[in-house]
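In this supplementary section we document a worked example of the pipeline. Step one takes a protein sequence of length 735 as its only input; no multiple sequence alignment statistics are reported here. Step two produces a three-dimensional model, which step three serialises into structure tokens for compact storage. The input and output of this example are shown verbatim.
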Amino acid sequence: MIWVKRGAFALVGVLVLAVVGLASWEPFFASAANAPGQGRVYSAEIIRDDFGVPHIYGKTDADTAYGVAIAHAEDDFFTLQDVVAMARGRYGAIAGEDGARVDYVYHLIDARGTAEREYPKLPADTRALFEAYAAGLNQYAAKHPGEVKLANLFPVAGIDVAAGFALRQPFFFGLDSVIGPLVAGEDLRREHGPDIPGFPRDPLPVAAPAPATARQQARALVLPLGEDAEHLGSNAFAVAPQKGGGTTTLISNSHQPLRGGVAWYELVVESGEGWHFAGANFPGSPFPFLGHNEHLGWTNTVNTPDMIDVYQLEVDESGMHYRLDGEWRDLESRWVTLPVKVGPVVLPIRREVLRSVHGPVIRNDKGAFAIRYGGIGRLEQLDAYYRINKATSFEEWEAQLARLAIPSTNFIYADKTGTIAYVYNAAIPARPEGVEANWRSVLPGDRSDLIWQGAVDYAALPRIVNPASGWLYNSNNTPFTAAGSGSDLDPQAFSPVMGIELKQTNRSWRAYKLLSEARVLDRKTLEAIKYDTGYERLGYVARLFDGLETMEARGRLAEARDLLLSWDFTADGKGRADALALLVIRDFMSADYSNKPFPDVTEKLGAASDHLMTHFGRLDPPMGELLRLRQGGLDLPLDGGSDTLRASTTWDVAEDGRLSLKHGDSFIMWIEWQPGQRVTSRSVQPFGAATTRPRSPHYTDQMRLFVDHRLKPVYFWRDDLLAKASSRRTVTSAR
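The serialised model returned by step three reads:
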């Protein structure tokens, strides 16, 4: 019996060693970065205003970037670490299976390889910005070891930050809508327009539908990178002085998740080298992505041109060779280790990553499919964003956009001279005209003439400068409605091969109508438009209500149908049917945005009715009791719908049945140039400057402003800031 006991003890010892090994292998396996800025001392002054928004001053631009990292880490080091882990292919060690899916995509699209090839080619001053930012992150991590989530995550270098940009950039034009279905073996659904060659009405056949669990896994592939495409949204407005009562106005109303790696962070940067900009960035960026300087400003909305081509490869029996122009070529293959946190241990999961000359390759039951997308393998956007931060005129600003270094997103622009502009910015693939191919379908992978290089010329893109109407807008709609009747572009003037979207959103219909009807677009009128909660009975909304009118129902379902039919098409929280409409409409909007089948009206109405009866005991609770903005101990009512200009797009359903907003109106910035005066701006965040610091006074201090449709001052100018400063200190790096 002694040997049995000894054997048992030995087995326990082996198991303990195994657990210890699985709990500790990943940090040692991960490659460490060299600490940047050796011998370089950075210094920045961080002044926080009365809402805790940081204003970072440095002698050089690099000093300021260093201060940006310190200030952001003070407010949200929790999220910054997630972003750094994604940028190093280690997110699964923090977020488990969902994180490992992000890590797989990181390897699939070769984010690290892109950074290693392209980062050294960037101008020295741009690289200096990223090295300084990395130094700031490293310093904060070293001084606060108790906050670090993952061993050996720091130090990081500028190239690591750059790899994070390479990972994220293709998802803003919908790469998730291709990778997810290919992994799951689903049909691809691509946006199209009626009666235009190259825009098929049906989903593109790629593979048989997969089980629901596989579909869910595919959708989860990229969700941690940002909200999925079916819920994308943003509004942007620019008004010229002749239409705005003498004032030039730019309104930034980007819709992003309220928390996480693509949530906006507000800041003002200034340096002795002429960099002075107020706006917002995402975690992991040394500069703002939108906002204004003294001379000009811009904001962005997501656009969805056809930036992605899919090729079906002809492979041999081994599956490791593909045919191109009659010759067999080797598929590039490498194995990667994905860390997957499961409870207290991190499992090493091996996955194969494939690549052809086209781009990344995904296998499913139907074969091997290669993906090629606009901006593939490029990283110049790091430099372009830095340059437009410092532009002083429309010509300087547009010269940077003309590089097509920023792969996608609409730009709405305004400046102190009264110039306003809309640019449908996109590095659309330069597909050869006249080649026999259906670019909106799956392409044959055995023809090299279908493997395009580079992007179309900037001059080929839709663009409007100083329209006669005096206004411009975009609400994730086609660029062919942007400036009003007589000022809009003709879609027939643009090649259908470019795949420019023709879709409209309810926000677009509302904005176009309200802007066109207004005699003067002064501040009061623009506020009414920006916070508008109305729906037009058009598109998916019309189809939904047509279905309600013909729907047969009894009992409570009939009561719900009749209540919804009485709705005034306004999600202002005042009508009896607002809560029911809020619950019903979102899935129809989602299906329309992502080209999915139209939902069953009876099913969706029944589900919404059941939810309201279960949690509120009635079909008509006030919408403000249902839709909430929640953070810490604050729990406030909200207005707006899933596709209204006042956007409350998606939410988490809490145990009490309330809907806690997670995506929609987020950072709002209102910029004005008045005659003879220097630029002024106002802004608001849904929560506050310190979104993950519950003990901070700035954890929730903007929530009441946000729900009340109010904005706070932006202290762009130093003399204004010093009068409202809540703290002021200098941070310096160690030599």
